[in-house]
Amino acid sequence: MERTFSEALKHRRTYYSISNHSPILDQEIECIVNTAVRNVPSAFNSQTTRVVLLLGESHKKLWQIVKDTLKKIVPEEAFVKTEEKIDHSFACGYGTVLFFEDQLIVKELQKAFPAYQDKFPEWSLQTSGMHQFVIWTMLEDAGLGASLQHYNPLIDDEVRRTWHLPEHWHLIAEMPFGTPVQGPGEKEYLPLEDRVKIFR
Question: 7, 91, 164, 178: which has the highest count of C-beta atoms within 10 A?
Answer without folding.
Answer: 178
